[in-house]
Amino acid sequence: GVPAACPKLYGVLPRPCHALVLLNPQSGSGRALDDFQAVVQPMLAEADIATTVFVTERPHHAHEKVRDEDLSQWDTLVVMSGDGLLFEVVNGLMERPDWKEAMKKPLCILPGGSGNALAASINYYAGYDHVAKKKLLTNCTFILCKGLYTQMDLVSLSTASGKRFFSFLGFGWGFISDVDIDSEKYRWLGSARFTLGTLQCLAKLRVYQGPPRQPGPLPPDSLLVPLGQPVPAHWTVVPEEEFVLVYAIYQSHLGTNLLMAPAARLHDGCIHLFYMKAGISRVTLLKLFLAMSRGTHLDLNCPHLCYVPVRAFRLEPRVAAGIMTVDGEALACEPVQGQVHARLCRDGRSGKEEHDCPPPMASLAHGEEPCI
Ligand SMILES: Nc1ncnc2c1ncn2[C@@H]1O[C@H](COP(=O)(O)OP(=O)(O)OP(=O)(O)O)[C@@H](O)[C@H]1O
Protein backbone atom coordinates (compact mmCIF):
# COMPACT_ATOMS: atom_id res chain seq x y z
CA GLY A 1 0.00 0.00 0.00
CA VAL A 2 0.88 3.68 0.03
CA PRO A 3 3.26 4.64 2.84
CA ALA A 4 1.18 6.26 5.57
CA ALA A 5 3.74 8.96 6.33
CA CYS A 6 3.33 10.80 3.03
CA PRO A 7 0.38 9.42 1.08
CA LYS A 8 0.19 12.39 -1.27
CA LEU A 9 3.57 11.60 -2.79
CA TYR A 10 2.29 8.57 -4.64
CA GLY A 11 -0.31 7.69 -7.19
CA VAL A 12 -1.54 4.12 -7.52
CA LEU A 13 -2.27 2.28 -10.76
CA PRO A 14 -5.81 0.85 -11.06
CA ARG A 15 -6.43 -2.93 -11.27
CA PRO A 16 -6.93 -4.39 -13.69
CA CYS A 17 -4.39 -2.19 -15.43
CA HIS A 18 -3.69 -1.79 -19.15
CA ALA A 19 -0.13 -0.99 -20.09
CA LEU A 20 1.25 -0.03 -23.47
CA VAL A 21 4.78 -1.43 -23.61
CA LEU A 22 7.16 0.30 -26.04
CA LEU A 23 10.05 -2.07 -26.65
CA ASN A 24 13.20 -1.58 -28.69
CA PRO A 25 14.29 -5.07 -29.84
CA GLN A 26 17.74 -3.70 -30.78
CA SER A 27 18.54 -2.05 -27.47
CA GLY A 28 21.44 -3.27 -25.38
CA SER A 29 22.55 -6.71 -26.39
CA GLY A 30 19.33 -7.35 -28.35
CA ARG A 31 17.50 -9.49 -25.80
CA ALA A 32 14.77 -7.08 -24.73
CA LEU A 33 11.89 -8.97 -26.35
CA ASP A 34 13.03 -12.36 -25.03
CA ASP A 35 13.55 -10.92 -21.55
CA PHE A 36 10.17 -9.26 -21.65
CA GLN A 37 8.42 -12.52 -22.47
CA ALA A 38 10.45 -14.65 -20.06
CA VAL A 39 10.82 -12.34 -17.04
CA VAL A 40 8.40 -9.43 -17.21
CA GLN A 41 5.17 -10.80 -18.63
CA PRO A 42 4.65 -13.59 -16.05
CA MET A 43 5.18 -11.13 -13.17
CA LEU A 44 2.80 -8.54 -14.65
CA ALA A 45 0.15 -11.18 -15.29
CA GLU A 46 0.16 -12.09 -11.61
CA ALA A 47 -0.21 -8.42 -10.72
CA ASP A 48 -3.25 -8.08 -13.00
CA ILE A 49 -1.41 -5.81 -15.43
CA ALA A 50 -2.34 -6.55 -19.05
CA THR A 51 0.16 -5.55 -21.72
CA THR A 52 0.07 -4.58 -25.36
CA VAL A 53 3.57 -4.62 -26.82
CA PHE A 54 4.61 -2.11 -29.46
CA VAL A 55 7.94 -3.23 -30.92
CA THR A 56 9.82 -0.29 -32.43
CA GLU A 57 11.11 -0.81 -35.95
CA ARG A 58 13.35 2.25 -36.29
CA PRO A 59 14.56 5.36 -34.52
CA HIS A 60 11.77 7.90 -33.89
CA HIS A 61 9.08 5.20 -34.09
CA ALA A 62 8.22 5.44 -30.38
CA HIS A 63 8.26 9.25 -30.59
CA GLU A 64 5.64 9.21 -33.35
CA LYS A 65 3.60 6.51 -31.63
CA VAL A 66 3.13 8.39 -28.35
CA ARG A 67 2.73 11.74 -30.09
CA ASP A 68 -0.27 10.45 -32.06
CA GLU A 69 -1.67 7.82 -29.70
CA ASP A 70 -5.08 7.90 -28.00
CA LEU A 71 -3.67 7.69 -24.49
CA SER A 72 -7.00 7.25 -22.75
CA GLN A 73 -6.90 3.50 -23.43
CA TRP A 74 -3.71 3.05 -21.35
CA ASP A 75 -3.19 3.38 -17.63
CA THR A 76 0.57 3.53 -18.02
CA LEU A 77 3.24 3.68 -20.71
CA VAL A 78 6.03 1.19 -20.08
CA VAL A 79 9.33 1.64 -21.89
CA MET A 80 11.50 -1.48 -22.11
CA SER A 81 14.80 -0.30 -23.55
CA GLY A 82 17.74 1.87 -22.71
CA ASP A 83 17.37 5.52 -21.81
CA GLY A 84 17.27 6.54 -25.48
CA LEU A 85 13.77 5.24 -26.10
CA LEU A 86 12.37 6.94 -23.01
CA PHE A 87 13.90 10.18 -24.26
CA GLU A 88 11.89 9.70 -27.47
CA VAL A 89 8.74 9.00 -25.47
CA VAL A 90 9.09 12.06 -23.21
CA ASN A 91 9.73 14.35 -26.17
CA GLY A 92 6.95 12.75 -28.21
CA LEU A 93 4.50 13.40 -25.37
CA MET A 94 5.71 17.00 -25.09
CA GLU A 95 4.93 17.54 -28.79
CA ARG A 96 1.24 16.86 -28.23
CA PRO A 97 -1.19 19.76 -28.07
CA ASP A 98 -2.51 18.16 -24.86
CA TRP A 99 0.98 17.70 -23.35
CA LYS A 100 -0.18 18.90 -19.93
CA GLU A 101 -2.58 15.99 -19.70
CA ALA A 102 -0.27 13.59 -21.52
CA MET A 103 2.58 14.21 -19.09
CA LYS A 104 0.36 13.03 -16.25
CA LYS A 105 0.31 9.53 -17.70
CA PRO A 106 2.49 7.34 -15.47
CA LEU A 107 5.68 6.27 -17.21
CA CYS A 108 7.72 3.22 -16.34
CA ILE A 109 11.21 2.22 -17.41
CA LEU A 110 12.24 -1.42 -17.56
CA PRO A 111 15.94 -1.88 -18.31
CA GLY A 112 16.53 -3.39 -21.75
CA GLY A 113 19.46 -1.28 -22.94
CA SER A 114 23.12 -1.11 -22.18
CA GLY A 115 23.16 2.01 -20.01
CA ASN A 116 19.85 1.90 -18.13
CA ALA A 117 20.71 4.93 -16.00
CA LEU A 118 17.14 5.79 -15.00
CA ALA A 119 16.32 2.18 -14.11
CA ALA A 120 19.48 1.98 -11.96
CA SER A 121 18.55 5.31 -10.31
CA ILE A 122 15.04 4.16 -9.46
CA ASN A 123 16.38 0.88 -8.07
CA TYR A 124 18.65 3.03 -5.86
CA TYR A 125 15.89 5.44 -4.74
CA ALA A 126 13.76 2.42 -3.84
CA GLY A 127 16.47 1.29 -1.43
CA TYR A 128 17.33 -1.91 -3.22
CA ASP A 129 20.88 -3.27 -3.36
CA HIS A 130 22.95 -2.35 -6.37
CA VAL A 131 22.18 -4.91 -9.07
CA ALA A 132 22.47 -5.18 -12.85
CA LYS A 133 21.10 -7.15 -15.77
CA LYS A 134 18.29 -9.63 -14.97
CA LYS A 135 18.17 -8.70 -11.29
CA LEU A 136 17.72 -5.03 -12.12
CA LEU A 137 14.98 -5.99 -14.56
CA THR A 138 13.27 -8.10 -11.89
CA ASN A 139 13.46 -5.27 -9.32
CA CYS A 140 12.04 -2.72 -11.77
CA THR A 141 9.27 -5.10 -12.84
CA PHE A 142 8.44 -5.71 -9.19
CA ILE A 143 8.18 -1.95 -8.61
CA LEU A 144 5.78 -1.76 -11.57
CA CYS A 145 3.75 -4.65 -10.11
CA LYS A 146 3.32 -2.67 -6.89
CA GLY A 147 1.83 0.08 -9.02
CA LEU A 148 2.98 3.12 -7.05
CA TYR A 149 4.13 6.11 -9.04
CA THR A 150 5.47 9.52 -8.26
CA GLN A 151 6.57 12.70 -10.04
CA MET A 152 9.81 13.46 -11.79
CA ASP A 153 11.68 16.63 -12.63
CA LEU A 154 12.38 17.38 -16.26
CA VAL A 155 15.04 19.74 -17.53
CA SER A 156 14.28 21.91 -20.52
CA LEU A 157 17.36 22.29 -22.71
CA SER A 158 17.69 24.81 -25.52
CA THR A 159 20.48 25.08 -28.04
CA ALA A 160 21.83 28.08 -29.96
CA SER A 161 20.46 26.64 -33.20
CA GLY A 162 16.96 26.71 -31.73
CA LYS A 163 16.43 23.08 -30.71
CA ARG A 164 14.55 22.33 -27.54
CA PHE A 165 14.58 19.07 -25.59
CA PHE A 166 13.01 17.77 -22.44
CA SER A 167 15.52 15.69 -20.59
CA PHE A 168 15.10 13.39 -17.60
CA LEU A 169 18.66 12.19 -17.11
CA GLY A 170 21.48 14.49 -17.97
CA PHE A 171 23.36 16.71 -20.35
CA GLY A 172 27.04 16.18 -20.99
CA TRP A 173 29.99 17.53 -22.88
CA GLY A 174 33.46 16.10 -23.14
CA PHE A 175 34.84 12.97 -21.62
CA ILE A 176 31.73 11.08 -20.49
CA SER A 177 29.79 11.94 -23.64
CA ASP A 178 32.69 10.73 -25.75
CA VAL A 179 32.59 7.42 -23.93
CA ASP A 180 28.85 7.16 -24.37
CA ILE A 181 28.93 7.77 -28.10
CA ASP A 182 32.34 6.38 -29.12
CA SER A 183 31.48 3.05 -27.50
CA GLU A 184 28.26 2.55 -29.50
CA LYS A 185 30.10 -0.01 -31.57
CA TYR A 186 30.56 -2.13 -28.45
CA ARG A 187 26.86 -2.26 -27.55
CA TRP A 188 26.94 -6.08 -27.79
CA LEU A 189 29.07 -5.98 -24.65
CA GLY A 190 26.16 -4.60 -22.64
CA SER A 191 27.21 -2.29 -19.79
CA ALA A 192 30.84 -3.39 -20.18
CA ARG A 193 30.90 -1.14 -23.23
CA PHE A 194 31.22 1.87 -20.95
CA THR A 195 34.20 0.37 -19.18
CA LEU A 196 35.94 -0.37 -22.44
CA GLY A 197 34.97 3.02 -23.83
CA THR A 198 36.34 4.76 -20.74
CA LEU A 199 39.67 3.04 -21.15
CA GLN A 200 39.78 3.92 -24.83
CA CYS A 201 38.97 7.56 -24.22
CA LEU A 202 41.54 7.71 -21.43
CA ALA A 203 44.13 6.65 -23.94
CA LYS A 204 43.37 9.68 -26.12
CA LEU A 205 42.25 12.17 -23.51
CA ARG A 206 40.86 15.27 -25.14
CA VAL A 207 40.53 18.69 -23.59
CA TYR A 208 37.68 21.11 -24.30
CA GLN A 209 37.62 24.84 -23.82
CA GLY A 210 34.63 26.81 -22.68
CA PRO A 211 32.96 28.76 -19.89
CA PRO A 212 29.88 27.20 -18.23
CA ARG A 213 27.07 27.89 -15.89
CA GLN A 214 25.42 29.18 -12.72
CA PRO A 215 23.61 28.06 -9.55
CA GLY A 216 20.40 28.85 -7.65
CA PRO A 217 18.36 29.66 -5.71
CA LEU A 218 16.54 31.27 -8.59
CA PRO A 219 12.94 32.29 -9.20
CA PRO A 220 10.70 29.46 -10.39
CA ASP A 221 10.15 30.96 -13.84
CA SER A 222 12.15 32.87 -16.43
CA LEU A 223 15.46 31.49 -15.24
CA LEU A 224 16.91 31.74 -18.70
CA VAL A 225 17.57 34.65 -21.03
CA PRO A 226 18.13 34.07 -24.76
CA LEU A 227 21.44 32.41 -25.57
CA GLY A 228 22.63 35.47 -27.50
CA GLN A 229 22.46 37.61 -24.36
CA PRO A 230 24.76 37.49 -21.35
CA VAL A 231 23.51 35.49 -18.38
CA PRO A 232 21.76 37.51 -15.64
CA ALA A 233 24.11 39.30 -13.25
CA HIS A 234 23.29 37.09 -10.27
CA TRP A 235 24.42 33.93 -12.07
CA THR A 236 27.79 32.47 -11.13
CA VAL A 237 30.09 32.44 -14.12
CA VAL A 238 32.94 29.99 -14.25
CA PRO A 239 35.62 31.83 -16.18
CA GLU A 240 36.73 30.44 -19.46
CA GLU A 241 39.10 27.57 -19.00
CA GLU A 242 39.81 24.12 -20.29
CA PHE A 243 37.51 21.34 -19.25
CA VAL A 244 37.85 17.62 -19.54
CA LEU A 245 34.14 17.21 -19.02
CA VAL A 246 30.96 19.00 -18.04
CA TYR A 247 28.02 16.89 -16.89
CA ALA A 248 24.68 18.11 -15.62
CA ILE A 249 22.87 15.07 -14.17
CA TYR A 250 19.44 14.99 -12.55
CA GLN A 251 19.28 11.34 -11.51
CA SER A 252 21.66 9.45 -9.24
CA HIS A 253 23.09 7.08 -11.84
CA LEU A 254 24.79 7.78 -15.13
CA GLY A 255 24.88 4.08 -15.88
CA THR A 256 24.20 0.86 -14.03
CA ASN A 257 27.66 1.03 -12.46
CA LEU A 258 28.12 4.80 -12.23
CA LEU A 259 26.65 6.44 -9.12
CA MET A 260 27.49 9.99 -10.09
CA ALA A 261 25.08 12.02 -7.94
CA PRO A 262 24.27 9.99 -4.80
CA ALA A 263 22.13 12.83 -3.42
CA ALA A 264 19.87 13.10 -6.47
CA ARG A 265 16.20 12.11 -6.29
CA LEU A 266 13.41 11.92 -8.88
CA HIS A 267 11.99 15.28 -7.90
CA ASP A 268 14.59 17.16 -5.91
CA GLY A 269 14.27 20.23 -8.14
CA CYS A 270 17.99 20.11 -8.76
CA ILE A 271 20.49 19.82 -11.57
CA HIS A 272 23.63 18.21 -10.17
CA LEU A 273 26.38 19.93 -12.12
CA PHE A 274 29.85 18.40 -12.34
CA TYR A 275 32.79 19.78 -14.24
CA MET A 276 36.34 18.66 -14.44
CA LYS A 277 39.13 21.08 -15.21
CA ALA A 278 42.05 20.20 -17.46
CA GLY A 279 45.35 19.28 -15.89
CA ILE A 280 44.02 16.14 -14.23
CA SER A 281 46.23 13.10 -14.71
CA ARG A 282 44.90 9.98 -16.37
CA VAL A 283 45.58 7.99 -13.21
CA THR A 284 43.46 10.38 -11.12
CA LEU A 285 40.72 10.34 -13.73
CA LEU A 286 40.67 6.55 -13.67
CA LYS A 287 40.59 6.57 -9.85
CA LEU A 288 37.62 8.94 -9.93
CA PHE A 289 35.71 6.71 -12.32
CA LEU A 290 36.44 3.63 -10.27
CA ALA A 291 35.25 5.47 -7.14
CA MET A 292 32.12 6.51 -9.02
CA SER A 293 31.01 2.89 -9.16
CA ARG A 294 30.43 3.23 -5.39
CA GLY A 295 29.52 6.93 -5.45
CA THR A 296 32.61 7.90 -3.41
CA HIS A 297 34.35 10.06 -6.03
CA LEU A 298 33.64 13.32 -4.19
CA ASP A 299 35.33 11.91 -1.07
CA LEU A 300 38.60 11.90 -2.99
CA ASN A 301 38.54 15.74 -2.83
CA CYS A 302 40.08 16.03 -6.26
CA PRO A 303 40.77 19.73 -6.92
CA HIS A 304 40.01 19.28 -10.61
CA LEU A 305 36.49 17.94 -10.00
CA CYS A 306 33.84 20.53 -9.11
CA TYR A 307 30.30 19.73 -8.05
CA VAL A 308 27.50 22.32 -7.68
CA PRO A 309 23.77 21.69 -7.37
CA VAL A 310 22.00 24.30 -9.53
CA ARG A 311 18.59 25.11 -11.01
CA ALA A 312 19.87 26.33 -14.35
CA PHE A 313 23.07 26.37 -16.33
CA ARG A 314 24.50 27.58 -19.57
CA LEU A 315 27.48 26.14 -21.43
CA GLU A 316 29.20 28.19 -24.11
CA PRO A 317 31.92 26.17 -25.84
CA ARG A 318 34.52 28.39 -27.45
CA VAL A 319 34.91 26.06 -30.40
CA ALA A 320 32.43 23.50 -31.67
CA ALA A 321 34.54 20.50 -30.66
CA GLY A 322 33.59 17.27 -29.00
CA ILE A 323 30.36 15.44 -28.50
CA MET A 324 27.43 16.69 -26.47
CA THR A 325 24.78 14.29 -25.24
CA VAL A 326 21.26 14.63 -23.92
CA ASP A 327 20.08 11.55 -22.03
CA GLY A 328 22.79 9.59 -23.81
CA GLU A 329 21.82 10.74 -27.32
CA ALA A 330 24.40 12.69 -29.35
CA LEU A 331 24.05 16.39 -30.16
CA ALA A 332 26.18 18.67 -32.30
CA CYS A 333 28.40 20.83 -30.13
CA GLU A 334 26.99 24.35 -29.67
CA PRO A 335 25.94 26.69 -26.84
CA VAL A 336 23.30 25.06 -24.65
CA GLN A 337 21.37 26.13 -21.59
CA GLY A 338 18.86 24.43 -19.39
CA GLN A 339 16.68 24.85 -16.37
CA VAL A 340 14.95 22.39 -14.12
CA HIS A 341 11.16 22.23 -14.03
CA ALA A 342 10.59 20.78 -10.64
CA ARG A 343 7.52 19.30 -9.08
CA LEU A 344 8.55 20.77 -5.74
CA CYS A 345 8.27 24.31 -7.04
CA ARG A 346 4.62 23.92 -7.93
CA ASP A 347 3.70 21.63 -5.14
CA GLY A 348 4.71 23.92 -2.32
CA ARG A 349 6.15 21.13 -0.19
CA SER A 350 9.37 21.99 1.54
CA GLY A 351 12.48 20.03 0.68
CA LYS A 352 12.69 18.91 4.30
CA GLU A 353 9.34 17.17 4.26
CA GLU A 354 10.36 15.62 0.99
CA HIS A 355 13.49 14.08 2.43
CA ASP A 356 11.77 12.99 5.64
CA CYS A 357 9.68 10.68 3.51
CA PRO A 358 10.97 7.34 2.36
CA PRO A 359 12.37 7.34 -1.17
CA PRO A 360 9.85 6.61 -3.91
CA MET A 361 9.02 2.96 -4.09
CA ALA A 362 7.79 3.05 -7.65
CA SER A 363 9.48 3.04 -10.99
CA LEU A 364 6.35 4.65 -12.32
CA ALA A 365 7.09 8.30 -12.62
CA HIS A 366 5.06 10.87 -14.42
CA GLY A 367 6.76 14.13 -15.13
CA GLU A 368 5.06 17.20 -13.84
CA GLU A 369 3.92 19.69 -16.41
CA PRO A 370 7.03 21.71 -17.07
CA CYS A 371 6.38 25.44 -16.67
CA ILE A 372 7.27 26.56 -20.17
N1 LIG B 1 14.05 -1.16 -34.13
C1 LIG B 1 15.03 -0.27 -33.97
N2 LIG B 1 16.15 -0.37 -34.70
C2 LIG B 1 17.17 0.48 -34.54
N3 LIG B 1 17.15 1.53 -33.68
C3 LIG B 1 16.05 1.69 -32.93
C4 LIG B 1 14.94 0.81 -33.03
N4 LIG B 1 14.00 1.21 -32.16
C5 LIG B 1 14.50 2.30 -31.55
N5 LIG B 1 15.73 2.62 -32.00
C6 LIG B 1 16.64 3.69 -31.59
O1 LIG B 1 17.70 3.17 -30.79
C7 LIG B 1 18.15 4.18 -29.90
C8 LIG B 1 18.84 3.56 -28.68
O2 LIG B 1 17.94 2.76 -28.03
P1 LIG B 1 17.91 2.46 -26.49
O3 LIG B 1 18.21 3.65 -25.69
O4 LIG B 1 16.66 1.79 -26.21
O5 LIG B 1 19.08 1.37 -26.34
P2 LIG B 1 20.58 1.42 -25.89
O6 LIG B 1 21.31 2.42 -26.69
O7 LIG B 1 21.05 0.04 -25.86
O8 LIG B 1 20.50 1.83 -24.40
P3 LIG B 1 21.17 2.96 -23.57
O9 LIG B 1 20.50 4.25 -23.97
O10 LIG B 1 20.89 2.56 -22.20
O11 LIG B 1 22.60 2.92 -23.94
C9 LIG B 1 16.92 4.98 -29.59
O12 LIG B 1 17.23 6.33 -29.51
C10 LIG B 1 15.97 4.71 -30.75
O13 LIG B 1 15.81 5.87 -31.55
From TrEMBL:
Domain DAGKc: 14-161
GO terms for biological process, alphabetical: cellular response to growth factor stimulus; negative regulation of apoptotic process; sphingosine biosynthetic process
Keywords: ATP-binding, Kinase, Membrane, Nucleotide-binding, Transferase
Enzyme class name: transferase
Subcellular locations according to the entry: Endomembrane system
Signal peptide residues on this chain, from the entry's feature table: none
InterPro entries: ATP-NAD_kinase_N, Diacylglycerol_kinase_cat_dom, Lipid_Phosphate_FormReg, NAD/diacylglycerol_kinase_sf, YegS/DAGK_C
GO cellular component, one term: membrane
EC number(s) given by UniProt: 2.7.1.91
Region (Disordered): 349-372
Major localisation: membrane
SMART domains recorded: DAGKc
A Pfam family annotated for this UniProt entry: DAGK_cat
Domain of life: Eukaryota
SUPFAM superfamilies: NAD kinase/diacylglycerol kinase-like
MF-aspect GO terms: ATP binding; sphingosine kinase activity
PANTHER family: SPHINGOSINE KINASE, SPHINGOSINE KINASE 1
Protein name: sphingosine kinase
Organism: Cyanistes caeruleus (Eurasian blue tit)
Organism lineage: Eukaryota, Metazoa, Chordata, Craniata, Vertebrata
